[in-house]
UniProtKB/TrEMBL annotation:
UniProt cross-references to PROSITE patterns, sorted A to Z: SIGMA54_INTERACT_4
Domain of life: Bacteria
Family that this chain belongs to: Belongs to the MoxR family.
Cited InterPro entries: ATPase_AAA-3 (IPR011703), CbbQ/NirQ/NorQ/GpvN (IPR050764), ChlI/MoxR_AAA_lid (IPR041628), P-loop_NTPase (IPR027417), Sigma_54_int (IPR002078)
Record keywords: ATP-binding, Nucleotide-binding
Name of the protein: AAA domain-containing protein
Signal peptide: none
Organism encoding this protein: Hydrogenophaga crocea
PANTHER family linked: MAGNESIUM-CHELATASE SUBUNIT CHLD, MOXR FAMILY PROTEIN
């Protein structure tokens, strides 16, 4: 495979991966695109949607296509951190301790209904999501590369759930809302599920996927786009400085620098998915709601007015325009 980000082999490989996954998953194009963005940008995904929308199927299908290890953890109130990361086991015959590694040692990890476990269990993922490693009894173990955590939440039932710690939420690059399929898509879903079984063909390896991640870091991002990301994130913290004086009372906490990094890395990955070696303003604009919605914490006043973080983000984006395309700006000046 060529080292250049826009090599024909790269575009062809990503097209084959998406084609194979789409043979199994009907619709959900935007969700699948976000999963690929998170995978290329080495981020993690928080997904909110009702049961039965192919969230698990999408990740499992992707793992099969790239020959990766897939693990699913069903979060429940009785779960303990050792059930995730692993523990030390005493062998009575030899008198020695051995390490039993947990299900986090996979390429694609699905944390199903993550908010059904207490904070101490959720926090067990903090180290592995940031450092890609787990420490058990003072010994560090690296997880396989590439590594993606996709956590799901059910928006319907809130009884018996625990809010995610802010440190945990901030480690997710994006929060994606998955909606119901259209009538036409649901018709195809029923036909496909009730018809002959579909066998996916592996078209890539985890080594090739790691090479794609390295190539993604080479996609060019114009300094004006980075400045745009900084302004958007700064406006969530100090709206007054950006001419949004009435918004300060509606927001308790804004986004962290991880949001700015997520916007830039996400724009790179989306540009690469779209067959370019450079990011355009629309690449970043498309990702802004997904990157910011779980990081903007509304005040009681904002909640009492029935506002959502998405509504405030849309107001910020309307006030802070995206930079012009470089070529278009040059032609206008000419």
């Amino acid at each position: 495979m060529s080292d250049t980000p826009n090599a024909p082999e790269t575009a062809q490989l990503m097209e084959q991966i998406l084609y194979e996954v789409k043979r199994m998953v009907v619709g959900q194009d935007r969700f699948l695109e976000r999963v690929m963005v998170a995978l290329l940008a080495q981020g993690h995904l928080l997904v909110e949607g009702v049961p039965g929308l192919a969230k698990t199927l999408t990740v499992k299908s992707l793992a099969d296509v790239v020959r990766g290890r897939f693990k699913r953890i069903q979060f429940t109130p009785d779960l303990v951190p050792a059930d995730l990361v692993g523990t030390r086991i005493y062998n009575q015959k030899t008198g020695d301790f051995s390490t039993s590694l947990g299900p986090v040692f996979a390429n694609l990890l699905l944390a199903d209904e993550i908010n059904r476990a207490p904070a101490k269990v959720q926090s067990a993922l903090l180290e592995v999501m940031q450092e890609r490693q787990v420490t058990i009894a003072g010994e560090t173990h690296k997880v396989p590369r590439p590594f993606l955590v996709m956590a799901t939440q059910n928006p319907i039932e809130t009884e018996g759930t625990y809010p995610l710690p802010e440190a945990q939420v901030d480690r997710f690059m994006m929060k994606v809302i998955v909606d119901y399929p259209t009538d036409d898509e649901e018709y195809v879903i029923v036909e496909r599920v009730t018809g002959p079984a579909i066998t996916l063909n592996p078209v890539a390896t985890t080594e090739q996927l790691a090479a794609l991640q390295a190539q993604c870091r080479e996609v060019y991002v114009d300094p004006s786009l980075v400045q745009y990301a900084v302004k958007l994130v700064s406006a969530t913290r100090t709206p007054d400085k950006h001419g949004l004086k009435d918004m300060g009372r509606l927001i308790t906490f804004g986004a962290s620098p991880r949001a700015t990094i997520g916007l830039v890395e996400g724009a790179r990955a989306l540009a690469m998915l779209r067959g370019r070696s450079y990011a355009l303003p629309e690449d970043m604009v498309d990702l802004v709601p997904d990157v910011l919605r779980h990081r903007v914490v509304l005040s009681y006043e904002g909640l009492s007015e029935g506002l959502t973080s998405d509504a405030l983000i849309a107001r910020i984006m309307k006030h802070i325009p995206a930079p012009a395309r470089p070529l278009e700006a040059d032609s206008k000046r000419a």
